[in-house]
Amino acid sequence: MSTDRWGEPIEILLVEDNPADVDLTREILTDSKVSNHLHVTSDGEAAMDYLLGRPPYAGAARPDLVLLDLNLPRKDGREVLEEIKSHPQLRTIPVVVLTTSQAEEDVVKTYHHHANCYITKPVDLDQFIQVVKAIEDFWFTVVKLPSRNNHHSS
Questions:
Q1: Which CATH number applies to 10-140?
Q2: What pTM was estimated for this model as a whole?
Q3: What is the mean pLDDT of residues 126-150?
């Protein structure tokens, strides 16, 4: 298992309220060829608390990548995306929208709010595995992510 460009595991925040999708994503990323730490929040409020280092997430690692579902309790994923991309310390974190919504309106709105990509979650288990592996391959091996040293959350 290799590490990323800092010689440290890649930090991933998964914002997902479906426990089965969380478990499957965790399982796929555990077998990843790139070392990573997966952090999970199950609603939009907790995601923002995590990203801003508010209790109970004080001192949490800044994610290198956010995997964001849109349909979340407490605070919708669309609102979370808008907050991330309008916050000076968070806006450089790449956000991958990974959701069951195929609505054109959601696609347009998320890109309007600067999502880095929009992926519709397949219902089929094997396809879901392929999607998560494709995210891993693209974001962890092809793309150069911004250095953590240049952008610290406050």
A1: 3.40.50.2300
A2: 0.85
A3: 78
